Amino acid sequence: MSGAEGILELRCAGRPVAAYTTRPELSARHSPRPYLHPVTTPAGVPVSAFAPDDHRHHLGVGVAVPDVAGHNFWGGRTFVRGRGPTELDNHGVQRHEGFARLGPDGFTEALSWTAGDGRVLLREERILRVRELGGAAWALDLSFALTDATGAGVSIGSPATNGRPGAAYGGFFWRAPKEAGPPVVFGAAGDGEAAVHGVCGDWVALAGDGWTLVFAGADEETRRDPWFVRAAEYPGVGSSLAHERRLLLPAGGTVVRRVVTVVADGRLDRAAAEALAHRGVTP
């Protein structure tokens, strides 16, 4: 760990592959939170984007939710039913509270999700590990457990549950870099953005200029969440916590999700991507 912002370098097979910032100095409008960026392939090709011009609140790779009991932990505008995207003073902060385990291959981290008025709404345990999958690929294994901290239960939503069809983002999210053309998209459910967006599937892949990302749900609960996929507008993939209806956490309740992302050099075909997805989730 180094620097005022608290930056951890993650290494795989002796090579740096990602940096994790724990205490970013960001505008409240960005819903400050820990994030991974830059993330690279084994050959050093960048596969994450931080605060791109099209969405300044997209912060590399991490966990973000646009509606936790009405508070915005995603950043940017809030989608309000009947009004659309609206500027509100409702942004929260994910605060790094400490590491229970810390090493060059990953960590176990405690975080608090704090509303603008200082109330802690959620407590999180985040576990991240990196693993080599051969010389041209590695796996990022990220799990998070969100626990109600209010004692009264908490409700998690998305723009989709608030009236915007097709916008069920919220949970794990990976913003990839924008290139001259959109990435190729394919997955267990088919080929193309329309075939995989909003659909449950064991895995989904983005393939860009010299890189491929293969995202896989690593347990049954995560695989029940539909994928949120963007390619034409911007390149990004997430797993939807609140797709058709709000996710209700009872008092003291916990929701756990785990996504493994394979980061590979080159543009993989379907067979290679599927094989790496299965290797990534296999201990």
Explain the layout of strands and helices:
Blueprint: E1 7-12, E2 15-21, E3 35-39, E4 61-68, E5 71-73, E6 78-80, E7 84-86, E8 93-103, E9 106-114, E10 120-132, E11 137-148, E12 154-157, E13 171-175, E14 184-187, E15 190-191, H1 193-196, E16 203-207, E17 211-217, H2 220-223, E18 227-230, E19 236-239, E20 247-249, E21 254-265, H3 270-281
Describe this structure in words.
The protein has helices at 193-196, 220-223, 270-281; strands at 7-12, 15-21, 35-39, 61-68, 71-73, 78-80, 84-86, 93-103, 106-114, 120-132, 137-148, 154-157, 171-175, 184-187, 190-191, 203-207, 211-217, 227-230, 236-239, 247-249, 254-265. Helix content is 7%, strand content 46%. Strand 1 and strand 2 (15-21) form a beta hairpin. The chain contains 3 helices and 21 strands. The longest helix is centred in the C-terminal third of the chain and has 12 residues, at 270-281. It is mainly β. The strands form 4 sheets. It has a 9-stranded antiparallel beta sheet.
Quick structural gist:
This protein is mainly beta and 283 residues long. The chain has three helices and 21 strands.
Number of E-type strands: 21
**Intertermini distance:** 27 Å
The percent range for helix content is under 10%
Structural class: mainly beta
Task: Using brief descriptors, characterize the structure shown.
283 residues, mainly beta, 9-stranded antiparallel β-sheet, 21 strands, globular
